[in-house]
Specification:
With about 60 residues, the protein is mostly helical. Helix content is about 50%, strand content about 10%.
Length: about 60
């Protein structure tokens, strides 16, 4: 059985956006902050990780 991860790590975001690790952290923080404003509980957000669904809402052409 294959387990699929539902989040991207900072290193994956860095590669997909072709940015530095620090910039990737900043982008993740912005996306997660937006998710919190939309009503997602803070406990569901992890530092340095971002939901794949939320990431692709902001960056639809990144794979």
């Amino acid at each position: 059985m294959e387990v699929k991860c539902l989040v991207y790590t900072v290193s994956e975001v860095s590669v997909m956006l072709n940015v530095s690790i620090s910039t990737a952290y900043r982008k993740i923080k912005e996306i997660n902050h937006t998710a919190i404003r939309k009503g997602i509980h803070k406990e569901c957000i992890s530092s340095g990780k971002v939901s794949k669904k939320l990431f692709h809402e902001v960056y639809p052409n990144c794979d």
